[in-house]
Design goal:
The structure is a homodimer. Chain A is 40% helix and 18% strand. The first copy, chain A, is of the alpha+beta class.
Chain lengths: 146, 146
């Protein structure tokens, strides 16, 4: 039987590898060049090159030439890649609360002037989403525990 | 130079592997037993066993015995694991919009009665967070492109 069809699985086909997400984090931070992304993430150059190529092919990043002789490129987010900021912020928030010891290492300011605390809400009612408030309505039909 | 200290990196030390997140997805869906998690994710049994052990050690899951003879266990989310629902929902939403072809395979209903569309907002002003509205205030001090 094939595994459950699911957008989480589909998303992880594209970004389900830590070096991919860490590279995307750097580009969100404004770091665009291979050497600095490698330094800031700690990724090996071979793995990073492979991950960046995959992200370009998947349409999350574009390579832009910033130097003609010799040819040099930097990485910029497409709209699809940019839309991942919610995933990165939510992951950061969970890490701040449940993994990182001490103060959050990274702080963002929102355009309203406040330091950003991201919150996941229901678009319909605006209330914060808590796991017990959710009921599964539809999922690809794979078995549950008997 | 060590890589950038960051809660995204810290979080990915725990859950930065697609089989870990897919196993957590199943447990959110209410599937608690090894065989069914393996079937629904498509993970190999060896890899799944390793990932579940890591998640138990990291405090995201607990093993509970549901049968004495022979001893059989199921996996339940701790509060720390449960808090990851925001990450899974945000990842699902991005996958629905940018990767999955066709209708979203998974639909949740919120307690307000609406089908859930998760939205990431600023806790202070309540506005949806868009990437251009964010300014980096503090980050571990690693270089940017020169």
């Amino acid at each position: 039987m094939p595994p459950r069809a699911c957008s989480i699985a589909n998303a992880l086909q594209v970004i389900g590898e830590r070096w991919s997400l860490l590279a995307l984090r750097e580009i969100f931070f404004g770091v665009r060049r291979f050497d600095q992304i490698a330094t800031n993430t700690g990724a090996s150059r071979d793995i990073l090159a492979t991950r960046l190529r995959t992200l370009v092919e998947a349409g999350l990043l574009e390579k832009q030439r910033y130097n003609a002789h010799p040819p040099r490129y930097e990485y910029v987010l497409t709209d699809v890649g940019m839309a991942l900021h919610t995933v990165l912020l939510t992951l950061m928030s969970w890490g701040d609360h449940h993994v990182t010891q001490g103060e959050p290492p990274t702080v963002w300011r929102h355009s309203c002037g406040a330091e950003l605390t991201p919150r996941t809400v229901c678009a319909s009612c605006g209330d914060e989403v808590h796991a017990p408030d959710l009921t599964l309505v539809r999922a690809d039909g794979l078995g549950t525990d008997e």
